[in-house]
User: Which sequence fits this backbone?
């Protein structure tokens, strides 16, 4: 059955272009095709694979499709599929070193490979988390505990008097706000600082906010810099922020979820200049380095602090080796740990650094190409710089109409395109402007797919104009 | 290469009994066998599989080995390996309904299958989390926000005046303390209530603690009942606790991480009688139902409350279907979501309810058998009741010596046994007494393996006695 499924996956990947990128099913359609109760007796496995094809596949949005330009990419390279298969087959649960030493030590080695690839100094140590959301929550919890000198071991955050404050830009990802809220800071103590014309944090505004908060008796605690914002891949000035962080004793967390992968290219490292001043950094190899979801890399300077915040040490988890080894259960929120390092190890070994780099350079070049197509075309507007692989655009038809008409027009374009099945992109807002957000980076996306997207957009424009006229 | 790896896994599983259960490598041994830097060029995949066999396998502790009696089991049934392979191959990221409707809807269906299997009413809705640690953190965050009427949307927990208090038993899992600390309650506001002679929470002591805290002006907030504690699978009196929870407006969270799976057996449901009074429940199908790690099932009564605590709604995540569908990114901490429902679906369909039940009954019977062997043997002491599949014992040699000698003796037994490779169990403390904790429930463990463990323990006793004498 394993062989049958391997063939099915190979076949699926080879015919992936035949599928509409975005699933076209309607809400409840898949659910209604499934039995409401579990089977009493086991079923033949052939039937399970048949259902995979007939019921599940129509409800899949194909993230590995070359026409996937939505959100940020989430690559699952075939080498990663195999690495993950090895992890499932071994079935190791790596909460402690002893519960599978190879899982802990391979994670140490592969995270150090990644550190070297990114050009980070040996002051940073990496550990695998599931997602950037979770890693950022860890970062803010570590910040909270550093500022309060471990309030968790006393009366908790609720016993603190002067409120702690968190700072990020108004373009920061929603997971920053979520983490700040879950960590107990409260929305009133989250400052979303104004950004400049390139959607990067204004350090002058940040300084003003810090000064104002200090004057009110509040306690600035953590600062989140984004390298590659979600809306437009804007680059916060990490160096300037690091300086302020040091001056005020703030925890500096760098959210490079998407852009971090690009740092394996030396020519991209200017984008997070100053990163050595960070206390923690997160980036997602599951986005743009081929390691399948979920594999988020969290790098920290002070591992002992992380462990103090996250560790528990009950007798049933102690082993004779605890003083000599890392027990990675103490490096994050979940206690149990899947052997995730395998898939990144497989990908790096199968590709080699040079191919990983070549592939990212291809995507960056494709983004530049697409940008030039947009810039040269009449009635198209580009809304942000393109430092990475995301291009933010909108169509402004002859005789510009109101902002609401522009919004409706561009939403129609996105809808038409997404429903066509040829490509999938995310309509989104950039400082209130409705945009079409083209995020390039599926492993299968070549220049011809980017050209095809551009053609499909022209067709969608015509269709939207007709719909509006009709 | 996929075929080669499928063969390798099938081969590994078929010869698993040949391996020592617990890896015998020393700290750093695996790491030293791996290159310190990543390869510049890609490597032949044959070499990767060869390294899997030669470098990784010696560092694996075999959780699916029939001689695995440590911690709690973590089964990865072969059907689950295939389900997970399908998930990796599809590479879907299911944060929103639209990003793969089948992933969200299959999760709804399979979680509802599980709800029915467990005998829970339709008031509960299930969602997949990675681990019970994460689910419990969610539960305490939801409790915190209910008690404070959403302080997260104002000044946060740090703006609250009367401290919130969390209650659990002194046998509760370390993840409860970790969650309480991370959620900001603080160690001083966590009450670990005394347990009775069966290691279950004393409701009278709980009532006293509540009364005392109320008298001091504190605010009781959340109550965690454990169905199947980690040390001895003790059963807190859920019904009595639910009554107090209702009376005082406490959030009742039931941690049934291990024992929850047993509720697919109607004859076990007395163990969590009163569970319908819970606000949230967590159990781990990855422990004892064959769905490979990580797959934790979190059931809640008030889904709207969960969503209000966990949701963010930035423009780049909105889709046209948001009012009609579940976006599971808003049901937990991480935003991105792997298609985990597939592996549980595969397991339930391949096995059918009856085989799943038969297998659990086998393990329960094996635990009873082992208990009887212990009870009938001289110089062996059983330290706790055996409602489930875990048997807590210690060896008390002729002419009982001090507690510290007993501890050293039993640790030597555990060490000898674990190093022998024949079996692996976790030495642990039960209210200060050193015990040998025998946790039965690997999918491959048959009666003969339990008999073999008993023989191996006798041999380890002799060896320990010799070591002590020598």
Assistant:
């Amino acid at each position: 059955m394993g062989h049958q499924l391997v063939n099915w996956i190979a076949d699926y990947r080879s015919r992936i272009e035949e599928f509409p990128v975005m699933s076209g099913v309607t809400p409840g359609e898949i659910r209604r095709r499934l039995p409401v109760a579990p089977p009493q007796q086991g079923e033949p496995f052939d039937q399970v694979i048949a259902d995979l094809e007939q019921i599940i596949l129509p409800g899949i949005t194909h993230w590995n499709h070359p026409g996937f330009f939505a959100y940020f990419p989430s690559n699952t390279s075939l080498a990663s599929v195999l690495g993950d298969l090895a992890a499932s087959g071994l079935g190791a649960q790596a909460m402690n070193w002893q519960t599978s030493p190879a899982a802990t030590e391979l994670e140490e080695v592969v995270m150090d490979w990644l550190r070297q690839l990114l050009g980070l100094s040996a002051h940073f140590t990496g550990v695998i988390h599931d997602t950037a959301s979770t890693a950022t929550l860890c970062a803010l919890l570590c910040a909270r505990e550093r500022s309060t000198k471990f309030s968790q071991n006393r009366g908790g955050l609720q016993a603190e008097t002067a409120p702690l404050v968190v700072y990020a830009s108004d373009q920061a990802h929603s997971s920053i706000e979520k983490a700040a809220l879950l960590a107990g800071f409260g929305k009133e103590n989250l400052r979303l600082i104004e950004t400049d014309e390139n959607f990067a944090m204004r350090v002058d505004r940040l300084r003003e906010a810090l000064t104002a908060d200090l004057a009110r008796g509040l306690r600035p605690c953590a600062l989140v810099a984004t390298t590659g914002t979600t809306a437009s891949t804007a680059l916060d000035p990490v160096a300037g922020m690091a300086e302020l962080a040091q001056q005020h004793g703030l925890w500096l967390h760098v959210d490079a979820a998407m852009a971090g992968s690009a740092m394996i290219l030396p020519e991209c490292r200017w984008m997070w200049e100053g990163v050595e001043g960070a206390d923690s950094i997160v980036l997602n190899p599951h986005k743009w380095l081929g390691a399948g979801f979920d594999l988020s890399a969290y790098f920290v300077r002070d591992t002992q602090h992380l462990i103090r915040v996250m560790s528990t040490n009950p007798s049933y988890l102690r082993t004779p080796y605890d003083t000599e080894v890392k027990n990675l259960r103490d490096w994050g929120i979940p206690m149990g740990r899947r052997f995730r390092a395998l898939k990144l190890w497989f990908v790096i070994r199968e590709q080699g650094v040079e191919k990983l780099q070549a592939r990212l350079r291809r995507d960056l070049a494709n983004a530049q190409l697409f940008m030039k197509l947009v810039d040269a075309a009449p009635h198209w507007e580009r809304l942000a710089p393109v430092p990475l692989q995301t291009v933010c655009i909108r169509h402004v038809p002859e005789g510009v109409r109101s902002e609401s008409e522009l919004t409706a027009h561009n939403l129609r374009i996105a809808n038409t395109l997404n429903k066509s099945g040829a490509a999938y992109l995310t309509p989104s807002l950039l400082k209130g402007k409705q945009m079409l957000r083209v995020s390039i980076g599926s492993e299968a996306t070549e220049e011809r797919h980017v050209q095809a997207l551009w053609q499909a957009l022209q067709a969608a424009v015509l269709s939207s104009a007709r719909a509006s006229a009709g």
